[in-house]
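Late entry, written up from scratch paper. The run itself happened at the end of the previous shift, but nothing got recorded in the book at the time, so transcribing now.
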Amino acid sequence: MKLVIVESPTKAKTISKFLGKEYQVESSYGHIRDLPKSKLGIDPEKDFEPQYVIPRKAQPRVTALKKAVKKSDGVILATDEDREGEAIAWHLMSALGLTGPKQTERIVFHEITESAIQHALESPREVNMDLVNAQQARRVLDRLVGYKLSPFLWKKISRGLSAGRVQSVALRLIADREAEIAAFKPQEYWSILANLKNKHGEFETQLAKIEGETVDKLGIHNQEEADKIVRDLEGADYVVEVLEKKEVKKNPPAPFTTSTLQQTAAKRIGMSSKKTMFLAQQLYENGHITYMRTDSVNLSADAVRAAATWIGENVGKEYALAAPRVFKNKSRLAQEAHEAIRPTNASAKPDSLTLSKDEHRVYDLIWRRFIGSQMPPAQFNGVHVEVEAKNKDKKYLLTANGSMLTFDGFLKIWPVKFEDKELPEIKEKESLDLVKVTPDQHFTEPPPRYNEASLIKTLEQFGIGRPSTYAPTISVILARNYVEKNQGRFTPTEMGTLVNKVLTENFPEIVDIDFTAKMEDELDKVAEGKLVWQKSIKDFYEPFAKHLAEKYETVSKDDIAPDEKTDQICEKCGKPMMIKFGRFGKFLACSGFPDCKNTKSLKEPPKSSGVVCAKCLASPDRKDNPGELIERRVRQGRARGKIFWGCNKYPDCDFAVWIDPVKEPPVYDPVVEAAKKAEQEERRAKRGKKTEEKKER
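Output as recorded:
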């Protein structure tokens, strides 16, 4: 009997369905070797040799796998096809004492289906050491940065902080954007709209040119300029100079890569990148989708044929393409993944599968995006009109555009928001009548704060990190309290701003976007066998270590985060209180530390509405001392960061409302509240039942 080893028990269970009794499928439960947590685990003096250990929690699994190896006729390593999966296979060989190709085979597959597994078994290979070395280089590089730079932050700011090669760049992007917003000064500008009509109807135009010169967005600076243009247009004659009619086509987007899946899930269903990837992993391991870590938009010939067949039979022959649509890879890093993320079975509609609610939402996106990518473009009838407005002094040009959907094409499966705008029947050289001229005042707005989708898109554009690193990077900077997520947007915390300042001023190469992208390029060259990984690490580490040693001597904690004196007196010992920096920002601490360890929070108290809690007033126990509704924020889930108003007597009173109680005084109805609670309990019970059913399956 041959032993097949994968990383995940779910994956093992799915693969077992496709293999006969001559195979035993076991899981390693993830990594079985890693660098030690208690020390650096890398020897710079010995060519950066990693010192791998088997973590305590993995030792029972390794023991069980060793026993299974002894009983087997050979071992097949079927870990994921990317660099991390290749490294896990190599670690398994080392930890289990597997000697080589006679005893061990390596297989890879992009989807967990019977045909893919059988094809992989027919074409085994050896472990690809170039991919292993690329993963080793990444691990060593990140360990050197994290374990060398984090203690610097502990000593100069506060313990518990961390720095990382990718996370620090992500923090810098968010902090730099916040600085842009703070420094932004709104600029006034005006737009001019003119409503015109003929016998067939009325339509709106916008000023585009004055005396042949294009009016850019900021071209009209103030009301005085706008009013002068309005007076000219009110006395002008209007004639249609240009009328263009053409068919406009909108092509479908490519099937998902890791990055675009995370971005789209954030935009369309408000799901975090971490949760999206967790659910995609489950879908992959249960055989529903192809491998979910990929830079590629390629599709296999079989998948494209299956999509065309399903479209022709279920949507209509007019929606099936005569030839497959092929997409070009935009990512310069797309070299190791074979296909985009797609369903393993094109005919498996989302509603036909037994999935949890969230799995269904992610699968629905993947299935629709894939099917839509092989459908015809949407077609619109487009109209472009240019109208000359001429008075005795000046000539103005106004434009209008219209479009009407004539064939929905891929929009039938992959809906995209658009607005039909129909213009009345118009002829060239036709005179038009003015209905009204409307000047609109605007002010430029600062760049928006990053959300998950835009941050991932930016990281990908600059070549920072890999598909597998985007979600963990965001999770780390949130967990470290470097950034907060308010109403879906990232803002740096006080601590995040300080850490970014220290790193930017003292270690600019670490948070430099171009430098980080260059390191990714070098890791790609290692994966391609074009660069020895130790050389890449050495070129980085030697100047970095020297620079770090200098900064330990020249940078003072008092220069970065000096303690601030206050007029407050410690109520425990009578000494002055000081403002200090801790892991979670500024706080008050007694100057008598360590003899006195009194501390206080500096956070402002929650904003009070001044509105008395209606539920407290209805309660016999609290009506004489009711609470007030104060401003709070949702701490987790899809609504994280959203403001609501809750009673300050919580948890004794759980009354809360979403609407500002000052604008709409809340009313407490015990019957309505009881019905709401019953509905919530019913939903919880249903979720619990589904979870139990899933566990049983």
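The CA atoms of residues 112 and 287 lie 5 Å apart.
(Scratch paper discarded after transcription.)
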